[in-house]
Amino acid sequence: MSTDRTTADRTTTADASEAAAQEVELLRRLRAFEGRPAATAGRGKDPVNAPMIRHWCEAMGDTNPAYTGPDAIAPPTMLQAWTMGGLSGHTGHTGRSPAYDELLALLDGAGCTSVVATDCEQEYLRPLRPGDEVTFDAVIESVSPRKTTRLGTGHFVTTRMDVRANGEPAGTHRFRILKYAPAAKRPAPPKPAGTAGPQRPRPVVNRDNQGFWDGVRDHRLLIQRCTACATLRFPWLPGCNACSSPDWDTVEASGAGTVFSYVVMHHPPFPAFDPPYAVALVELAEGVRMISNITGVPYDKVRIGLPVRLEFLRVDDTLELPVFRAEAG
User: Fold this and answer.
1) How far apart are alpha carbons 175 and 158 in whole angstroms?
2) Is residue 161 included in any domain, yes or no?
């Protein structure tokens, strides 16, 4: 019995040592990609142009006058938009280099077959203006050691793109993905009888939005209105995004609206939420838009243009939220 156990222990130790050695070798091979190009001599498919700026601003609801007129500039956050290849991708020498595909293939071979974008960072060096020709180069900046997340275990890959306009540095865009091996799904353990579920996250209430949450407490959905130019705005801001005036009052929303856009959340799961569920961008009758949940219909019945009506959902003893119920008919 003792001999068998010693042999098993030795086998387990040997297996663990071999796995550790394989992990070290994999990381060495992954790190060899650091500093190699992810894209070389890239060129934007189109010059910076007013129609794309207009489409972006309409989608974002951004009415900043700096983005219109003869002296217009592009919103800084559009930096990466001018470098994208679209559905057809880039052709010829422009675009992604073989090194990036080789790196992803190595991760696939290591079992990291799934991918999720995690975050991006941008630094702006000069405004982009209509007519600017955009060029770029990108480099594989770093590959992390194996990390364990709720999605699974894998490696974070960070690329840095240096963007130029007419040959001048315009900005830097860092983009990070996680290439991972999906974690095995485990059934949730049954909850003991009488056990309360996890609490919904609390909204951040500060001096800029206190009035909004005071309205929710009184079952009123309040929209800010600039007293200088009468522009309505939501979410609440300390100043007007149309004329920059800091003075404002409020109007109460009628409660009518339509679904302007929506997503269905499947993964990752969060405590106190039960996926799948729909999260919608609702356009209120007053013209502003807000993000909320849709009630009264299954998540897969939510559609763009669906008429909705405001209601207030009591989440727990201390939290009530504005949501929108689908209108019948």
Assistant:
1) 6
2) yes
Burial of 161 (0-12, 13-18, 19+ CB in 10 A): buried
Q: Tell me the per-residue pLDDT of 114-173, one tens digit each, with 9 for 90 and over.
A: 999 999 999 999 999 999 999 999 999 999 999 998 889 999 999 999 999 999 999 999
What's the one-letter identity of residue 267?
Answer: H
Q: Which domain holds residue 295?
A: 255-329
Domain count, the chain: 3
What is the domain-level CATH number for residue 321? 2.40.50
Query: What is the value of pTM for the model shown?
Result: 0.59
Q: Quick check: 63 and 72 in contact, CB under 8 A?
A: no
Q: Are residues 228 and 326 in the same domain?
A: no
272 with 310, same domain: the answer is yes
285 and 174 share a domain?
no
| Beta-sheet pairing, 319-326 with 289-295 | parallel
Residues with Cβ within 8 Å of 123's Cβ and at least 6 positions away in sequence, in order, are: 171, 172
- The helix/strand/coil state of 65 is helix
Same domain, 235 and 140: no
The terminus-to-terminus CA distance of the chain in angstroms comes to 74
For 141, 162, 187, 219, 284, the CA distances from 252, given in Å and listed in that order, are: 50, 46, 45, 10, 11
